[in-house]
Amino acid sequence: ADNFLPGDIKIGEAEVINNTGGSKRIATEAINYPKNIAGLIPSNDLSRAMTIIIKEKDGNDIYGGNSGTGEKTLYNFYKNGETYLSDVGGSKDSKIFQFIISFPDDKGDDWRETETNFDIIVGFQGKEGEITPPGTDPGGGSGAGVLPGLIIKYESAYDTGDTWAKIKWWTSYNATSRVIYCKKSENCALNLSDNSGATPLYGFTNTTSEENTPASQNGVLYREMTLIGLKLGTIYEYRCISHASPPTISRIHTFTTLALAKTDETSEPLNNPVEENSQNIYNKNKPVAENKNIPKTQEQDSKKQAENNGQPKGNIIAKSLRKIADSAKDITGAVLGEKKFLNSNTENSKFSDNAENTNKNQDTPDHASKKQHTIAFFIILFIIITVLIYTINKIKNKKEQGDAFKN
Question: Which of 25, 215, 313, 357 has a C-alpha 20 to 30 A away from that of 237?
Answer without folding.
Answer: 215
